[in-house]
Every structure is written in structure tokens, then in C-alpha cells.
Amino acid sequence: MYDVYGLGNALVDMEFKVEDSFLARHGISKGHMTLVDEERIAALVSDLEGLSPERMSGGSAANSMMAVQGFGGRTYYSCKVSDDETGRYFINDMAGAGIHTNPNAAAEEGTSGKCLILVSPDAERTMNPFLGISSHLSHHEIDEAALARAKYFYVEGYLSSSPISLEAAIACRELAEQNGVETAISLSDPSMLEFFRDNLTRMLGNGVTHLFCNEEEALAWAKTDRLDIAFKELNDIAHTTNITLGSRGSVAISPHAHIEVPGYPVKAIDTNGAGDMYAGACLYGWAAGMDEKQAARFGNFAAAELVQSYGARLQNVEAYQKLLKRFS
After folding, report:
1. What does pTM read for this prediction?
2. Is residue 40 assigned to a domain?
3. Which of 84, 120, 150, 170 is the most interior residue, by most CB within 10 Å?
4. What's the rounded Cα separation, in Å, for the pair 152 and 88?
């Protein structure tokens, strides 16, 4: 029995601290995610020569699975990497945390995905992911038996950018629904709504149990500048929607409830991964028996802890356990 079965891109994060001038020089849109090809990421890394990046396995849903596992849950993550140094690093890092992955995750030749994360002085993170072979994540990487034994199925909206991965996400959602597994999805980034809205709509199907998004994504989905209107639109696609509001905390909405949960005042130095941590904390909380308000409060607490240090996730399982004890 798994608490959460996750599906998402397998990327190794390379995080650099840069000045705003670096972003301007390369024409990079600050604070957003921009998919890049192999030539582009090689050029960016070349211009960062001499700087030492923080490196760890990542990808949005992978970060959330690390959180669930670290807090004490049991997780399975379906992904795709190549049998190269980057891919082996990813699989070994996940296994070291106790996360089960599909045995054929690194069965093909190619280039594993990586994400160049640029953190500016104001703690904004600008992501430049190169998906590599991860964009070919398909039904072939799905472990149907493991998914059927999970409490929750969780998928990142980033998979909407790949036709092959989109079909895998839809297949997983349908299989989860057939087996009584609760479904959860993150909208991931405003760029997904701008360029892949139709694919996201297909991924959502007739609606999911849980939806995660931030304020900007909620407004973009509803095509409005008013959150109250966005709430009504989001109620049509999920039984419960958790919307993160940065330092203001988060809100959990459903057709019958509107729960505002205040945030924790901290000095943020790196917001990368905050949404992933929030989703992972909520998923763990629900699996552990927390109600909507308590899980959202734990999500706020965990995200606030994360943004006080560099990196999209905590360094190891012990760090997650210590965080959970401080919350308790």
C-alpha cells in the first residue's frame, strides 16, 4: 500500500545564485519557467562556469514525493531517465530516500533531463528545464498494480507540455478513478496555462479530487484578476482546491467550504520548490489523517521552512523528520 503514487518529470536540479544582469543578458523572463533545448542549456551553463551549483534530484512532483516520503509516508514515483551519469544520480537519490521507482526508469539511451535554476537576490527563482528523455515518459513507465494500491495519485501539470507524457497522465488518472484512488494535480506554472491549457483540461478530465495552484495560476485559469471569481471556476474542476498565497498563507476551497489559513512570517531567500513542498506536506497530512485546515497549516509551515534556505527541497529524510517534529 502506498500513500501517494506520483508521476512527473525526472530532472536533476542545478541551482545557481545570479544577479539580475545575468537574466537580462540572456533575455530570460524572471520568475517564470521556460523550457529550453540542449544547446540553450549548454550555453547558459557555459556562462556560469566557475560557479558551484547546488545539485539534487528534482522535478516538481519528485520534490513533492520527497516531502511525503521524508515526513514518513510511503511513495512510488514513475519517471524516465537515461542510463547516463545524470540519470543514475537521480535514481540513486530517490532510492536513498526510500522512494520506489519503476524498474525500467533508466532502460534507454539518451540524455537525462536537468533543470537550471537561477536564484536572484530577491529570492525569485527562474527555471530553465531541459526535459531530455523525460519528455518521453509514457504508459510504458506506469506500474498499474502499484497505482491501484495507492491512497492518492499525484501528477504535475508540467506533463501537459509533452503529448506522450500527457497521455500517460490521463491513463493514470483514469486508472486511479477505476480503483477508487483519490486524484490530485498541480497546475505547476502560469506558462502551462498560457501554452498548454487544452492539454491541462484533458489531464483534469471531468474533475479531480484535489487541485494545487498558486494565486497567479488560479487567476490565469479563471482569466480574471479577482480571486473570488477564480474560486468559483476552480470549484468546477476539483472537489477541493488548495491555493497558495505566498507569505499570506493559503486557502482551501470546495463547494461547501472556504478555509483561510495564515502563513508563517519568515525571511525568504529562495522560493524555489515552495509549492512542491506545500503539496507534499498536504498529501502527507491527508494520508496521515489530518483534516483540510490542519493539512493546509502544515503545508504553510513546511513551505515557510523551505524558503529560508537554498534548494527546491530539504537535503535528506532526517531534515523532513525534524521539520515534522517542530510542527507537532
Report:
1. 0.92
2. no
3. 150
4. 27
User: Within a domain: residue 119?
Assistant: no
Structural domain range at position 252: 2-11+58-112+133-327
| Domain of residue 75, CATH code | 3.40.1190.20
Sequential pLDDT tens for the chain (328 residues): 999 999 999 999 888 999 999 999 999 989 888 889 989 998 998 999 888 888 889 999 999 999 999 999 999 999 999 999 999 999 999 999 999 999 999 988 899 999 998 989 988 889 899 999 999 999 999 999 999 999 999 999 999 999 999 999 999 999 999 999 999 999 999 999 999 999 999 999 999 999 999 999 999 999 999 999 999 999 999 999 999 999 999 999 998 899 999 999 999 988 889 999 999 999 999 999 999 999 999 999 999 999 999 888 998 999 999 999 999 7
Task: Specify the 3-state DSSP secondary structure of 57.
Answer: strand
Give the residue among 64, 37, 9, 46 at the shortest CA–CA distance from 128. 37
| Helix 317-327 and helix 60-71, axial crossing angle in degrees, nearest 10 | 60
- Placement of cell 500513500 in the chain: 3
268 falls within a domain = yes
When divided into structural domains, the chain yields a total of: 1
